[in-house]
Specification:
alpha/beta; two-stranded antiparallel sheet; 14 helices; 14% strand; single chain
Length: 405
Amino acid sequence: MPSKRVKEELNAPNFHPSPWFDWVLGFASICLGILVGVMKFVVVDLGLSLVRRVSISKKEMVAKDEQQVRIRHVSGQPQEAESRRTSLPSISASHKGISNGVYSVDDKDGLAEVIVLNSKQTVWDNEVKRVIVMIPGNPGNPKFYTEYMTEIHERLKVPCVVLGHTGQSFLSKGKATFSHFHQVEHKVKLMKLVQTRYPSAKFILVGHSIGAWIGTEMLRSLNQDDVSLVINLFPTVHHIGTTPNGKRLYPLLRHLRNPIAELFGILGRLLPSVVLEAMVTWHLKRGKETDPSKCCVEAACSLTYPEVALQAFYMGCCELEYMRDIDHLHYQNHEEKLVWYYGENDEWLTPHHVDDIMRMLPKSTHVHCKKGFSHDFVVHDSIHMAKLTCELMDEYYAKTATKQI
């Protein structure tokens, strides 16, 4: 059950806007939609020559991404693979597990991008004993986690897999939208392919933000013996709508997500990729001395595709609306294999939410961040968080080994 403070926040007026407030935002959404439609008309019909000139650099970036998806890594050796839209790997297809690429996970043209890091492993795939699987937050482009997972892969020398969210990258974009509930179903399907490739392995699930909830929900459909550990980084697993960020973003995501996504698309079409990347870098830097990681800048630029932005916004809105109490029976069934890492001053997770989790799951491992890492650690602190994640794994297995003795 949620704490008294969380209950008070759920009943607060700012969490349940009045009908008048909804009407005002709905009217603003219509006006903004009309404005966006006019802007699109200007861009398409009157600014065609400008778009053609600036799209050259954009096409180069697209060609680069298309080339990347044609490369599959099988036992560390590059191999030519099919293009993105022709003969896409299907979950129902009988093939030898998962590799780099885009996979069809839903009948509604749902595609998910997957990144596999296995160049440092020292044994054959069928002899691998441990595999680390990353479940992203939102936005769920797997490229956000490339630097983070690469560092873990370099340290532990085991295969690392990033399961991107359906429709949330350039290579997986589509017209259909999917909630966090759909994402759980899709991740389970992808996990079966991971298990096919590594049949002898035990799996460590690492979930970030909403990925913590998705990863823990996946345990319902996976064999308990196959997953040895679940690490939840900056977890958002219940009542996200009562957090400071949830209260700020919910009205926008509920009423204005479509016109905002279209505005992002207009910016992506008008601006050369160099200018767009410079703007994204400036935004992500946020006054810090170091520049954001290049993989995060590249992943953030994919939000200038309206389909990608809308998918992230829709999923976020569903999280804020439908995530309520924790299913304590399910979580307690896996309590001892759950490791929780809480951020300091995290506006997606208040101290009251942390208290709820710690009170409900006393046998889990709970760690409070003392190093100042932010909720979006992949932007600036991927290397440090990768080191910390490896330490959490070592401490957990050392403690487990001691109990067995």
